[in-house]
Amino acid sequence: MRYPLALPPNRAAMGEDTVVAHTEERKGTSVNKSELIDQIADEADLSKAAAGRALDATIGAVSKALKKGGTVTLVGFGTFYVGKRAARTGRNPRTGAAIKIKSAKVPKFRAGKALKDTVN
Questions:
Q1: What phi and psi values does residue 3 have, to the nearest 5 degrees?
Q2: Disulfide check for 87: which of 13, 35, 103, 105 has CB 3.0–4.6 Å away?
Q3: Distances (CA, A) of 64 to 72, 102, 112
């Protein structure tokens, strides 16, 4: 879902309608990798270097399992798995010509009950 942003004040002053983003639906904050490493280090009483290696190892293990076509289930958190996207016909937006889009394997995630309960 995309959220439109508000127009700059100078454009609004020119009589154009102002579009306001739905910020109440986007509560919370984003956490990047370094912030996640900091949280892991604090919670597990590890150095930041060790927490970084642990996170990289986890991501690597999940990626390796998915590459082999497997699934990774973390009970209470969720399941990582490989989904299949069928081949389809698309359109070149510049020329309008029909193009064939190949089938693809895509990584997917299904949240577990405990994670869903935590979010709600």
A1: -115, 125
A2: 103
A3: 10, 23, 21
- Spatial CB neighbours of 84, under 8 Å, sequence gap ≥ 6: 103, 104, 105, 106
34: closest CA among 49, 19, 16?
Answer: 49
How buried is 51 (Cβ within 10 angstroms: 0-12 exposed, 13-18 middle, 19+ buried)? buried
Question: Stretch 96-105: mean pLDDT, rounded?
Answer: 95
CA of residue 111 relative to chain centroid, distance = 12
Tokens read off for 114: 């405990």
109 confidence band (pLDDT: 50, 70, 90): very high
- Whether pTM > 0.70 for this model: the answer is no
Q: What is the pLDDT of residues 2-61, one digit of tens each?
A: 444 544 444 444 444 444 444 445 567 899 999 999 999 999 999 999 999 999 999 999
Strand blocks (E) in the chain: 72-74, 78-85, 88-91, 98-101, 104-111
